[in-house]
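Researcher: Let's try something more involved. This one mixes different molecule types, so please make sure each is placed in the same coordinate frame as the others.
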Amino acid sequence: MQKATIQLETLACPSCMQKIESAVKGLNGVNRESLKVLFNASKVKVDFDSEKLSISDIEKAIEDLGYEVIKSKVKPV
Amino acid sequence: MQKFILGKKNQITLISAILIVLAFFSRFALENMDIFHWSLIIASVLGLAPIAIQAYQALKVKVVSIDVLVTIAVTGAFLIQKFEESAIVTFLFLFGAYLEQRTLNKTRSAIKELTEMAPESALKKMENGEFEEVDVDDVDEGDILLVKTGAKVPVDGTVLSGEGYINEASITGESVPVGKTVDSQVYAGTILENGTIQIRADRVGEDTTFGRIIELVEEAQDSKSEAERFIDRFSKYYTPAVLVLGFIVWLISRNVELAITILVLGCPGALVIGVPVSNVAGIGNGARNGVLLKGSEVINDFSKVDTIVFDKTGTLTVGNPEVAEKEFYGENIDEVQAYLASVEKESDHPLAKAVLKDIGETNLFTVEKTEVVKGGGIIAQVNGRRIAVGNVALMEKENVALSEKARRDVERFEQKGNSLVLTAVDGELKVLMGIRDKIRPGVKKDLQKLKRLGVKNLVVLSGDNQGTVDLVARELGLTKAYGHMLPEDKSAFIKKMQAKGHIIAFVGDGVNDSPSLALADIGIAMGSGTDVAIETSDAVLMNSDFSRLPHALGLTKSTARNMKQNIIIAVGVVIILLASLIFSEWMNMSIGMLVHEASILVVILNGMRLLRYRLRGRLA
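Model: All components are placed in one shared frame. Result:
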């Protein structure tokens, strides 16, 4: 398991959170329990299985929604 | 293509504004209806594009967002050729989102200032022995780093060589520079004001004290209270419900205009954003003023506190006790003092430190069979003799007889507010020391402010004798004072008060009070910012600054009130809009959207007031 912290552009609407939450939860290999979308900090924190998917898959899922990923960090749990 | 359109949202908003102005100009000034219609058509299509894309993306992940409602409403208006409405609604929606983003950034600014203090680069010693600038993420534990004058310390570490003065305001709130030499601890985010040092990285990134503070504040600003989670769940069903309502209205009345107006009026706009905005502004104000609040649940509970329980040592007092008075009984004073010092050397109790400081340099003996008596003192073997150091209770337990004079001395010392340390050698009392701690300057005023903010009971609990505690209580105007309290007595007391229906905050230094900190409705740690207390408590007063406490209470009260105001504004707006649709003639989509966007700005601006919150003059 790896822990990803993804910094996004400033989130303005709370419905963005719902969208990002659903999109990331829909990915195969993420730990749904661990997912946190921080609205005010504009960050996504999630644990994922690096054998099933990579950080760029998660980034892509978010960017496909139209939210720019500024920086992401991956740390082993 | 999608990204391109979303990226140009601001430009699109501007163009549709120009087109709308052009439309009305040509209608009223030029009386040209063609330009009027075509301008509005272009403005509608252009403006709808980014909204429709967002709606599509939301639906793809099975979320019925506000974008979906607006897209359907605008498309409907367009189809029944209400171009005026479709253009104005899309414009207002986009423009509102733009203003929302701008103002939201303001409310988040206080916390952003904090996170921006995080170090970004470091000078790391490479394999060839040279120092090279690297990203702070590339520093590992054990690396050797160089910090030059004016630079930020990039990690928590230990000084290996050099010396300098460091401003630790970002951690402790104290801006007087602290001198550092070899083996001193340095903290990430602090600034080396002069000197040059080499340090070894002990903790990096999020594990540093500063990293932990940032993470805590970041999580706090996004933590949700029960009420907020309810709103979240509610809005998950609310938007689809509005959609269904619009559809039913259309089925029954066959009136497209009425149906799509309901979609716009029913937008939950201000409701979802109102509470988070108050929360982030309140926590931001706290962070700026040396008060860490861990989330909106904490804010709610804190604002309702009616009883504050204080630990004495280190909280109401400076926590640096000194021997104020002493009496000796019998001969061989030097020898006894040497025994006493040897035993106290084993202890990290604050009173032990005071005793050692008072005795100063002396011969030290080997101490054997040390036994710590909880709430009593220490018993040990020194030089073949039995030494007991502790309070009166310990002496009774050890069957040490107190002479008439000794009893009078004990009484006198207690009345003056001293904590007592008695020393017995082989069952005979030799030394009596009275140790006193200074009351923190300004505490009395701060306690009065708390009372005026509506706190009914101010209680002090202490392990000290009753005389000392009473004296402090009288001097500070506390409502109740209890001495001889062990840590478990303190938590029992808190339980008892809670059972009576009081909402309790416990203020302590977090070292030996963790059960009470955890048990109280609100645990407030007086932390220098480097303590574990940061983790166990609900709120932290940085740099152990007691004067932050009234500010914290006032701030939580204002923030809780602000949240309620925002909920009332948001719910009120939806009710008024829907009611006026039924009872009045003038309500339409455009006005509905205008009112919605205005209400969103009102709640954000209302939340922003918290950033400037300060205790009002009458309390000062």
